[in-house]
Amino acid sequence: MSCFALALMVLSSAPAHASDPLRLTETFRVLKLSPYMRAAEDGGHIFSVQNAGTEQLELILHHLPQNGLAIALGLKSASFDILRLFSSDDREFAGAPGALEKLRFTVPSGQVQSFYLPGIEETLTPELYLWSPEALAAYESSRQTFHSAVLLLLFVLLFVALGVTLMRRSRRAVYAVVMAGGLMVLLGALWMRDVLPDNEQFQFLLVNRLDAIRVALGLGGLMSLIAHLNLIVRQIPNRNYWTRVIIVSDIMLGAFLVFWVWEILTPDFAGLLSVELGEIALAMTCLTVLLGAVFVPDRHDSD
């Protein structure tokens, strides 16, 4: 099942009252947990799960992926505490040190158990989801496949655009290619954790991911500014063509900024799709600019 199908499943589910236990069976896939949580008097949150199946139920409490660009710019915290749970039968569950956003726990068959989640801020509760292990693995695999395919497509298009630019000697296309390249580095840095395997070969890139995001943002912003100034100040060949390209790319870039700010203010505004919409708009910006360079009319710049 794709990540988009799972997202629609979550959006269409109707939450019960927070005091009602979640009645789950072996067929459970995913749900947004916050509607079923209630605040505890001494801080933290409580939720209850009823295992209506005949086998022990294994579940994963999962925090939505963080907004990497907001963290790189210092607008959000770079980390949060390891998730911990205490059950009503005196068991304790904790997330692994290398996977702070996940916590695996179990509910015995035929039982109703309450779970206490300490220390999590009220603003972070909308970002918590409950998964079956199989559904979460499928979701993460779908994200990795989608991100890898989009980046591969953009890199192929980048090389095609670069070849066309060199053959036609178009200076404006050079600006477009460099702008798209900068935004692609930004997109790759944002998706790095999903695309690159977590091993020693890529550890340097993963550790310096936030620096790569800052550099790519600066490069993409600079080349976008140069492209706009060239269009406004200088008389250029194919002016109407490049005006249309820049207008469409600006619309896509504006959508990226809107979704990015929206995610900062309301992290769960579109459920599981909240973390994808802004980055998809950024990918569409790169696609628009690269296609503009590929299909530039066959006229040499005269300046």
TrEMBL record:
Superkingdom of origin: Bacteria
Alphabetic keyword roster: Membrane, Signal, Transmembrane, Transmembrane helix
Transmembrane segments: 146-166, 173-192, 212-233, 245-265, 277-296
Residues annotated as signal peptide: 1-18
Protein name: Diguanylate cyclase
Species name: PS1 clade bacterium
